[in-house]
Amino acid sequence: MTATPTPATRGLVEITGVRKSFGATEVLKGVSLTVEPGGVAVIVGPSGSGKSTLLRTINHLEKVDGGHISIDGKLVGYEIRGQKLHELREKDILKQRTEIGMVFQNFNLFPHLTALENVAEAPVVAQGRSKEEARRRGLELLDRVGLKDRAGAYPRQLSGGQQQRVAIARALALDPKILLFDEPTSALDPELVNEVLDVIRELAKSGTTLIIVTHEMGFARDVADTVVFMDQGQIVEQGTPQQIFTNPQEPRTRSFFSKVLEPAFNI
Amino acid sequence: MSSATSRVAQVRPAPTVEPATTAEAGAAAAAPGQAATETASVTGSNLPSGGGLPPEGTARIAADYSSYRVVAAKHPWRWVGTAAVALGVLAVAWSLATNPRWEWGVVAQWFTAQSVVNGLLETLKLTAISGILGFVLGFILALMRLSASPLLVSVSWTFSWIFRSTPLLVQLLLWYNLGYLYEKISLGIPFTDVRFFEVQTTTLISQFAAAVLGLTLNQAAYSAEIIRGGILSVDQGQLEAAAALGIPAWRRSTRIVLPQAMRAILPTAFNEIIGLVKGTSIVYVLAYSELFYTVQVIYNRTQQVLPLLLVATLWYVVITSVLSVFQYYIERHYSKGAVRNLPLTPLQKARKFFATHAVTNRKSL
């Protein structure tokens, strides 16, 4: 169960000058960020700072208006031919997405499919694996998140924490290079938060690149290599948890942490 | 809970039991039900009459009413209401059975007559074909309406607009008389004289073809909106999650969205199908010999209008009832995962009813 730290060779994420507007509001104002293979980047910041939007541009759920994102040197959503960027067709975008797992705030499990069916669906239709193989692997993954005995349960028969663990298993089923977590514990009761964070802690050691948007500061300090503080569509400051939490340089960072840190730091 | 216990203790004549002190009541509240049930089983049925003799220092006994008889609350007005309705039902049934003008003998004679059964089969055929084609076309129209292409959206919108705003009767007559508007129908290259295939409209559009065309296109316009409504009722996050997992668009629609949309689509869709069963009677204007036209032909000959209308009505009731049973089980199938536990089917309910009642009967014996 405990994964031995493997030197990661894949999952380098490079975000360069990314801009994105919704109507007249510019939510990302030229964001650049590099996450090393196997790295764990935690993005924190006030609501509306563009954290979730940034995360969603990484797997092309949001198209960027400017700048670009690449994974292991390959552009996301576009292809370079000559001096032009050609937008990829749906089929190729889907293929890219299978390398990037995503876990949502509201789980978004398919309610009419059982836990195992949720996990085993994408490997069959998106990667062309056999049903038997997907099923076997699905059970393994459910076991890994501690839910093997609930494989036949429908999402509504599971607690919030259990649902989010199934969602993590579902994202893992495609063997992604990168996992994106969009506030994975925000919709959970406080007592259920830890069972999900424990699973993510395990993943942090496994060599998969993790990019996590969260409000759990204690967890961020614990698990991150890099903490990124965003505000108003820009990265204000980034560094090791030590630097950001105990010795922030920017006044905006300091004022944000002074409001959120006290209770969390007692952990 | 402790206050309830002490109140009971005060009411009960209990010579041997000390009045409850707060400490004791607290202990009773703290100790789980085990102690109470133990002592209750020791004192048993004589407790309510005289009170038991609890061992020193144990928690206060919870009163045991197990030997009391339960008297159900009385609802006299419910009985009055039930009697009144029963009388009404009886009166209707009596008049149906005894009034000779209903001519039940004639109804029985024609109910399974060959011509009526043939008409019934035509009705079923029309319903099935236009129902299925209508919903398939409706599904395509719904997808067009939800697509990103402005042309597809407006074509789909216009289709629904036209077919929902013109009377079905007019549509049917128009299709049947298409030969008047366009003498020949041909397939070729537009704006040239090349024709691969050409046919007289009147030979192509038979009564059956006109009926199917009219009913299908009309049905498609309505079912497109029903299906679109169902698709819109599915949470956007479902599509996003499926896209993030790399599931292809067609599979997203059929495997993820549609099964969830079905819950919203089915009740209205069955309304439409049941409406269509009876709606097919409108094709009598084309002299198409479905059920309703057939009975009309018969009563015009025999003058037994009412009993023959009853024959048709009874058949419509039968079809609708069968469809309702289908609806129940199909809806149940799609409620998988939407409810924590599936409701029992009528059959399971009946079994449970008899199982529990068999037990109570045995008890009372």
Your description of this structure?
The complex is a heterodimer of chains A (267) and B (365). The longest helix of chain A is centred in the C-terminal third of the chain and has 15 residues. Chain A has a domain of 176 residues: 3-Layer(aba) Sandwich (Rossmann fold). Chain A is α/β, with parallel strands linked by helices. Chain A is globular and about 50 Å long. The mean pLDDT of chain A is 90. Helices cover 37% and strands 25% of the residues of chain A. Chain A starts with 12 loop residues before the first strand and ends with a helix. Chain A is built from 9 helices and 12 strands. In chain A, strands 8-9-10-3-11-12 form a 6-stranded mixed beta sheet, sandwiched between helices. In chain A, strands 2-1-4-5 form a 4-stranded antiparallel beta sheet, with helices on one face. Chain A has a two-stranded antiparallel sheet with strand order 6-7. By secondary structure, chain B is mainly alpha-helical. Chain B has 2 domains: 71 residues, no CATH class; 245 residues, MetI-like (MetI-like fold, Orthogonal Bundle). A two-stranded antiparallel ribbon of chain B has the order 1-2. In chain B, strand 1 and strand 2 form a beta hairpin. Chain B starts with a helix and ends with a helix. The interface between A and B is medium-sized, with 32 and 24 residues.
